[in-house]
Specification:
Layout lengths: L34 E6 L12 E3 L2 H8 L4 H12 L5 E6 L10 E8 L5 E7 L2 E7 L5 H14 L5 E6 L2 E6 L11 E3 L15 E8 L8 H5 L8 E3 L5 H10 L16 E7 L2 H9 L6 E6 L6 H18 L9 E2 L13 H7 L6 E4 L5 E5 L19 H21 L4 E2 L12 E2 L1 H17 L3 E2 L1 H7 L1 E4 L7 E4 L3 E2 L22
Parallel strand pairs: 1-3, 1-11, 11-12, 12-13, 17-18
Antiparallel strand pairs: 2-3, 4-8, 4-10, 5-6, 5-9, 7-8, 14-16, 15-16, 19-22, 20-21
Helix pairs in contact: 1-2, 2-7
């Protein structure tokens, strides 16, 4: 019998007892699945633009990226849903020469005739102000602007001039146009009403333009893995930059990178606009949630639902994320929500969907990728579900760990070669048997299925051109998700049997 040592030399004559340790059969570790929040930083932030930083709280992000910045709000929403993740931020520089800030306004058209409370919502955050009959339109405008500026989490600054409050987005760019301004979101059930006589005229946020450059900042991530990447930008240039970053050919999913990761984002619009938006995307490493007229901005939705999904996908990548609550976002009004037919059609257009409970709780309905067609333009659902991508990540990393732990320093012999037990030698058949055994563990733990077919179809062979290389065809079948339960209720109105 030959036992292959890595450290204990063969030429020892001194005694007596020597030990080296071999952990090749003891590795049970899994990869750290980090979250990355991407967003523009404010000039008040202390972080260095383009350099990723590990963070632990919204307050920390507020200092690094600026209070009221996109990143500040994203971290707040993310941690409402996931408090166990290792979270990093990637703050982006915003170029004032190529980007403009969105603006909006609130005009106090008439003064109140009775005491009451203004309930103003900006980006889903409520600002309340008590007014009385003696207040003038100018004093109300001044007080309301002060109340807005006092709430540092808000993504806007406010300035008052006579009867008008001008709102300016803190972050530059197109994203600012999506900052919602409205009154009395909760309505009468929430005791929100405009005071008698008071009239406020709202002009929606507009004229924000441009987006930060993602490419250079993404390159600074080097080879650190990030499985959950929250992208607040839904413009084509930003989405395409992320697509290239995660590409199967030259990006993080490429054979020579093996870093993986998935981009989560949100896009806003009507049913028709969302369908059009989704149909021009085709990326298995990208998810876009479709939202219409929510008080909460798209970046909050992105961070919130990613956090909700991340908890589940880290625990079990094959378990469906449907019905998970998304905390920290406000649902659209009832008339602005999509009906079942519309949601089903959006799911055929690359757009993910949500549902809303009677109490306003928002829940994930189905998270899909935007991948819809193969290279020939034909319909392809192989990468439809997010769980498929995360199952592939898990299984591939599991296999890599098994191979590098057991076979990291082995000699390779042809099948049929006879050698001493314990020698650091493997053959294709030994590797094949090990792969079948590892697949059995995946099946037992609920990540894969159909072990018999796997054992029948797996191919492990020495490469014909390179005798030091083993090629493996891995024909695994991933676990599925129960998404639809269809029941034909063939009821009766007359008993067929009178027996006991």
């Amino acid at each position: 019998m030959t036992v292959s040592f890595a450290r204990v030399p063969d030429n020892l004559r001194v005694g007596l007892f020597f030990v080296e340790f071999d952990n090749s059969m003891a590795n049970n570790a899994t990869a750290t699945q980090r979250t990355l929040l991407i967003g523009g930083m404010l000039t008040s932030g202390s972080a260095t633009a383009g350099i990723p930083e590990r963070v632990s709280s919204p307050d920390t992000v507020g200092e690094l990226a600026g209070k009221g910045s996109i990143l500040h709000a994203m971290m707040t929403a993310y941690q409402k849903n996931d408090t166990a993740a290792e979270v990093w931020i990637l703050p982006l520089a915003e170029d004032p020469d190529s980007m403009t800030a969105a603006t909006g306004s609130i005009k106090v058209t008439s003064a109140p005739t009775a005491t009451g409370v203004i309930s103003l919502y900006i980006a889903g955050e409520r600002i309340q102000l008590t007014v009385v009959a003696t207040d003038t339109v100018a004093s109300i405008a001044t007080a309301l602007a002060a109340a807005i500026n006092a709430k540092s989490i808000l993504p806007v600054t406010a300035s008052a001039a006579t009867d008008t409050i001008t709102l300016t987005a803190k972050n530059l760019g197109l994203v600012g146009n999506g900052i919602d301004i409205r009154l009395n979101y909760l309505g009468l059930p929430g005791d929100e009403r405009t005071p008698a006589g008071l009239e406020l005229t709202i002009t929606a946020m507009h004229d924000g333009a441009g987006a930060p450059d993602l490419t250079g900042a993404l390159a600074n991530l080097q080879d650190r893995t990030f499985d959950f990447i929250v992208n607040p930008y839904d413009d084509t240039s930003s989405l395409d930059a992320m697509k290239e970053f995660l590409s199967d050919i030259s990006g993080r999913w490429a054979w020579d990178k093996q870093l993986y990761g998935h981009s989560f984002g949100t896009t806003a619009g009507t049913y028709a606009q969302l369908g059009t938006k989704g149909e021009v995307r085709n990326n298995q490493h990208e998810t876009l949630m479709g939202v219409n007229k929510s008080p909460s901005p798209t970046w909050l939705w992105s961070a919130g639902y990613t956090g909700a999904a991340a908890v589940s996908l880290r625990n079990d990548p094959g378990r469906p994320v449907q019905s998970l609550a998304i905390l920290g976002v406000l649902a659209p009004a009832l008339q602005d929500r999509f009906e079942l037919t519309e949601r089903n059609n959006l799911l055929y257009s690359g757009i993910s969907t949500f549902t809303v409970d009677d109490d306003g709780t928002v829940r994930i309905e189905n998270l899909i990728t935007t991948y819809q067609k193969n290279a020939y333009g034909d319909a392809d659902d192989s990468y439809l579900e997010v769980e498929t991508l995360f199952s592939l990540m898990f299984v591939t990393r599991y296999l890599r760990t098994a191979v590098t732990s057991k076979f990291g320093r082995m000699k390779l012999a042809a099948d049929g070669t006879r050698f001493a037990p314990g020698a650091a030698i493997v053959t294709p058949n030994i590797i094949k048997a090990d792969q079948i055994a590892e697949y059995g563990k995946l099946v037992w733990n609920g990540y894969a299925q159909d072990k018999e077919a796997f054992a029948k179809n797996i191919i492990v062979e020495q490469n014909a051109k390179n005798p030091n290389r083993v090629d493996v065809l891995w024909p695994g079948t991933l676990i599925n998700q129960l998404r639809v339960f269809a029941l034909l209720n063939q009821f009766r109105t007359r008993a067929e049997s009178t027996g006991a």
